[in-house]
Amino acid sequence: MKKFLFLAGLAIGFVLGSRAGRGPYDSLEQAARQVAEDPEVQRRAGQARETAEKAAHDAAATVKEKAPEVAAAAQVTATGAVHRAKDTISGAGKDSEEDLSDVEISDEVAAAAGIPQDDETGGDGESSDGKPLSS
Q: 111 Cβ partners below 8 Å, 6+ apart?
């Protein structure tokens, strides 16, 4: 890539600095077209495109695979923060071992986070006035 940038800069400098008229520019343009139309150059450009597409596909697959785990961890962290904030506001001041037994976590999130679920739990949590957190 550095070599290409150097050659491109050299070509631009040659064209802009040339006092020989249009002839050198035309020959440079013809040489650039020959390089661009060269089957080997096109093959290498195709390989680079395929490599970039594969890397993008692999990255997207990794994100799709890891997203549930990240979402579960975020939900658990946020739920713990909500309970600590409620405890701080209410003055309950529980120890570091918090009772999160009343926290409702969806089955998918619990499974992704490795949290055991009872049959009665799942869905959204509720605020102190009984309204669901998602509304």
A: 117
CA distance to 1, 27, 31, 38, 42, per residue, from 34 (Å): 19, 11, 5, 6, 11
Write down the residue that tokens 């990240």 correspond to. Answer: 70
Task: For residues 133 and 135, give the distance between their C-alpha atoms in angstroms, rounded to a whole number.
Answer: 6
Phi-psi label, residue 97: left if phi above 0, alpha if psi -120 to 50, beta otherwise: beta
How many of the other CB atoms lie within 10 Å of CB of 126? 14
Confidence at residue 27, expressed as pLDDT on a 0 to 100 scale:
85
Higher pLDDT, 24 or 75: 75
pLDDT tens column, 105-121: 666 666 666 666 555 44
pTM, to two decimals: 0.41
- Cβ atoms of 132 and 115 within 8 Å: the answer is no
